[in-house]
Amino acid sequence: MTKSPLILRPGIAEAPIYVPGAHGDDTAAIPPAVLSANENPLGPSPKAIAAYGEAIHLNRYPDGGATQLRQTLATQFGLDVNRIVCGAGSDELITLLIRCYVGPGDEVLQTQHGFLMYGITAKTVGATPVLAPETPDLHTDVDALLACVTDKTRICFVANPNNPTGTYIPGSELRRLRDGLREDILLVIDAAYSEYVDASDYSDGCDLVEDYQNVVMLRTFSKLYGLAALRLGWCYAPEAVVDALNRVRSPFNVNNSAQAAGIAALGDQDHVEISLAQNAEQLKRLCGALSQLGLGFPPSVCNFVLIRFNDADTAKRALSHLADQGVIVRSVAGYGLAESLRATIGTAAENDRLIAGLTDFMNKG
Questions:
Q1: Domains annotated on the chain, with CATH
Q2: Gap between the Cα atoms of 3 and 332, Å rounded
Q3: 8 Å CB contact between 153 and 185
Q4: CA dihedral angle for residue 41, residue 16, residue 154, residue 130, rounded to 10 degrees
Q5: pLDDT tens for the chain, residues 1 to 365
Q6: Distances in Å between the alpha carbon of 322 and those of 21, 24, 163, 314, 317?
Q7: Please, are residues 166 and 302 in contact by the beta-carbon 8 Å criterion?
Q8: Whole-model pTM above 0.70?
Q9: Taking a C-beta distance cutoff of 8 angstroms, is the pair 167, 136 a contact?
Q10: Cis (ω within 30 of 0) for the bond into 62?
């Protein structure tokens, strides 16, 4: 690269470029089984597809406040519409929160194997990511997070459930974490996979947002609702945080088609229930097959599972072997889990291919 005379802001040159999950070659005679990005294998609701196609007024700017979408979210989840902000995926909201509250010399705290974009984005504003150890079984460790807090800590990100481990901590532990943080530290609960969790002690964090002034909950339409291509997310936040986000976000950050599709997706509970039922069935089936193959995995409450091999070399060879079989899973070496691969829960046919590929690999030693 030719050296530029322009001066970058501190941290940008050191920030790694995020590498998404591969999707393989869709033009192949046998399309790949894409199990790398935790997408809904059934796709979006037919109603969402129809609404997307009907959003034809391309000469008009979208509603900058996503008013109808926010009202639909508020009604569906019983929330205060004035405390909802929509974004171009929850990724944008992560970036905006860091822009609002973090600067050079500050620290952004997260779990050891948390979502990569927390640390990457922190570096782009000159801040330092701090990784707190997780428990031996790859759960968020509240005590370890609190032990890593310093005078420089500005935001603490917790993905609950966590990607790529698939594990979660109960709502009582989230509340204990919040109570252990200073009032000037923002606790951001990334609940991207919350819809998949069927546990009585789980909380997506909305209750904490209601109770405190330094908690934000993030959600997305990219996973269960199958709208990853449209980049649509939202957050529930205290009024002061909402005000800050609205000052720094782009005025038309969510396009018309995304807003229309999101509203329609929320209204199609049949598709939601079908998607959840298939995921639960296929997750149980895949975990059973992994156990029979002697492969370990943390207990997942999500639409993916973290497959554990003996070492990084075995995981790398398994990744290549599966790719040769047309099965695309995700290396998570960048998350500090080089001995593991993450596999999305696909359709029955896709999971057949994954199980067959893993069986062949393990039999070959």
A1: 33-44+269-364 (3.90.1150.10), 46-266 (3.40.640.10)
A2: 32
A3: yes
A4: 90
A5: 788 888 888 888 888 888 877 787 777 778 899 999 999 999 999 999 999 999 888 889 999 999 999 999 999 999 999 999 999 999 999 999 999 999 999 999 999 999 999 999 999 999 999 999 999 999 999 999 999 999 999 999 999 999 999 999 999 999 999 999 999 999 999 999 999 999 999 999 999 999 999 999 999 999 999 999 999 999 999 999 999 999 999 999 999 999 999 999 999 999 999 999 999 999 999 999 999 999 999 999 999 999 999 999 999 999 999 999 999 999 999 999 999 999 999 999 999 999 999 999 999 87
A6: 14, 12, 21, 12, 9
A7: yes
A8: yes
A9: no
A10: no
Calpha distance 245→218 (Å, rounded): 13
* C-alpha–C-alpha distance, residues 349 and 329, integer Å: 15
Gap between the Cα atoms of 354 and 46, Å rounded: 27
> Rounded to an integer, what distance in angstroms lies between the CA atom of residue 247 and that of residue 96?
10
SS3 labels along 112-130? CCCCHHHHHHHHHCCCEEE
Burial 94-115 (b: 16+ CB within 10 A, else e): bbbbbbbbbeeebbbbbbbbbb
Closest among 184, 52, 73, 164 to 116, alpha carbons compared: 164
What are the Cα distances from residue 132, in Å, to 1, 25, 76, 178? 35, 37, 35, 15
Prior bond of 46 cis (ω within 30°): no
DSSP letter assigned to residue 137: T
